[in-house]
Write the structure tokens for this entry.
Amino acid sequence: MNRLEGRNALVTGAARGIGRAIAEALAAEGADVAINYQSSEADAVSLAQEIGTLGRRTLLFKGDVGQRSTWTSMIGKIRQDWGRLDILVNNAGITRDKTLRKMTDEDWLAVLQTNLNACYFGVSAVMNMMIEQKFGRIVNISSFVGQAGNFGQANYAASKGGIIAFTKTAAMELAKYNVTCNALAPGFTETGMLAKVPEQVRAQILTRIPMGRFGKPEEIAKAVLFLAADADYVTGQQINVNGGVYM
Ligand SMILES: NC(=O)c1ccc[n+]([C@@H]2O[C@H](COP(=O)([O-])OP(=O)(O)OC[C@H]3O[C@@H](n4cnc5c(N)ncnc54)[C@H](OP(=O)(O)O)[C@@H]3O)[C@@H](O)[C@H]2O)c1
């Protein structure tokens, strides 16, 4: 316990789903946690209260991670109030599922902006601080879809595959400063994102998962915790937490 005492973290899209489980796990291990959210205000406030009851500090940031200006203000405030940032988890993500024949440019661009461009904005916003500290742990949430592809998800697959390639390059460039950068690729996980998938399709998906069940957000969070707290000599990797759906 308290493996992250004295560390602080920023988790994007932290109010609900996988991001919330990650924020809770980091705080439970002793980290102060800054919470980014876009629209889930009540959930973000309740998360901040929950983290406060653990005796940890929090900062609440409402903002679209696909905009550079959101990062400028979040990192400026963290620098001012906390003086450093040890852990960044780029978790926020969206889907706009359509086959290529139905996909619009807007569907493509929106998913790339929120999932991939935000990841670049985030890493570029925090890297100077982490380089100065000679310490940083960056975890980018990808997806097995970025490795395997998935019907109706060309935009999402491209964004998540891009995250893996981006992560490896950032890892190479930042390694000598003791800043690690890894991608975590979940399989189908029980959150609002999966709930949007029609019941019949979810039943079909289950038949493809060797472990025969969907993942839980807490199971993804455990792997993030490993990367943030224990994986000092792990960088440029993609860690798969997917019940075997892609091997
Ligand atoms: N669930 C799965 O099966 C699965 C599988 C593989 C990978 N993933 C990845 O895991 C991550 C979390 O997904 P989830 O399943 O927890 O999804 P979710 O339940 O739909 O939650 C998405 C989160 O992203 C935030 N978000 C979306 N657009 C944002 C923006 N522009 N700026 C800031 N925050 C934004 C949302 O914030 P608000 O609610 O505040 O708007 C919300 O907290 C995503 O990157 C997703 O691609 C999920």
